[in-house]
Amino acid sequence: MRDLFLIGFLVTLLLSGFRRPFLFVCAYIYVDIVSPQRLSYYLLSSIPVSLIVFIAAIAGWALSDDKSFAKFTPRQGILTAILLLCGYTTFVAEYPDAALEKWDWVWKALVFSIFMPMTLYTRLRIEGVLLIMLFCLSSIAVVGGAKTLAGGGGYGTLNLMVANNSGMYESSTISAFAICSIPLILYMAKYSKLIPPSIFARVYWYALAFACLLIPIGTQARTGLLCIVLMAVLELRAAKRRMLYLAIMAGIVAAGVPFLPKSYTQRMDTIQGYKADASASTRLAVWKWTIDYASKHPLGGGFNCYIGNKLEIDMSYTTPDGTVVKVIGYDAGRAFHNSYFEMLGEQGYLGLALFLLVHLIGVFRMEMIHRTYRKEEGPNAWVSPLAAALQHGHLIYLLGASFVGIAFQPYIYFIIATEIAFDRYVQTYVKRKIWSPFRKRRSTIEAAERKAAEEAEALAEAEAADAEAETEASPRGFARAGEHRRTQPRWGSASGT
What we know:
Helices cover 66% and strands 3% of the residues. The protein has 19 helices and 4 strands. The chain has a two-stranded antiparallel sheet with strand order 1-4. Strands 2-3 form a two-stranded antiparallel ribbon. Strand 2 and strand 3 form a beta hairpin. The chain is globular.
């Protein structure tokens, strides 16, 4: 039954794409996030669904979409450089088979993030992509939130529709992306044009935000807790009534903590120290190994090069009476558990620099747009809130990426592509001088504006004076007509003809 529903929905979406090719783009986002081929038992699992929809999206745009907005931006150039670097490191990878396995989906994520901004040239399309992303996320978050409320959560035990704990269904990954999506959910609840704000729409959006908050509790991923804290701080920055916001947050925490599972609070307590926690100690050992590996392989070792690591893990701890217990553990082939070290180990120093550059430029550009249009009213009142929502989601991802290896997860590249398209849309249709931290002093700007106004006023006065002088110098129209009549004979010509 599940197979039939998944196939029916996907086929309907693809058939609609032949009438509206942009729906192929939405279909690819759905396939990449939800992965219906993984949810299917028999029918879809043997078909390269992702590749088929990927080709359909690009072909639909190439054949019937508007190409006038297909302008290449610097961030798309950086993404192209990352793609080429990944291709090179895969070709010379230390572990070719493992590298090809990851390259098989990474190249599609990067190519699509380069291509997608060319299709997003209206507000409706930008919001449409965000809606598809959030709806796809809700198919995972609502299931996880419902199971958490029913008491079915636990670290590594929360079943999110699939048994394979990887991709978007991995506990720490879905925790980070669920929380980074909440700012976008709150934007949709207030400013969406495709789904106009109403009581029913807001109930759905707020319920989805609540489900996303439950995901870190159900998965018991410490990454999620840190992301929630950062989200609360960022939303405080955007709140108009900050004291009321703080009071509400304090009330929610005070009322919610007693209902948290004991296993969750015990796991969160391990954040305070790392040496007695095997997971944290292992991560530190992997990061130390990665730094040493990058010093010997400046361009990285290719995808999944971590399988070659051999670790000596210091898990020593101090007992309450002050006794130091020396514990040394050994492990091998442990993943990076950090996107920055993932880039450093797999793509080297150049890959890490490009990775940081594309993310920091996105955060900075959204800040510029947010500051420029934050007092805007009327039809462009949505610009600043969307910039803030994209920026907050991006910052939350960057924090979560410090504890999870999600450097190439497609979800964040959809956000980057949306930021690029949104930035271009603002520059094209919402023309206004963008705020810049390197702007001139206000006094200098005001003096220049006064000088320009005085020059314009003087020019206008000079033009008015010239026009008045010209009018006085020439006789009026009626006077000229009378003089002309007096010079002509009353009847015929002077010769009498």
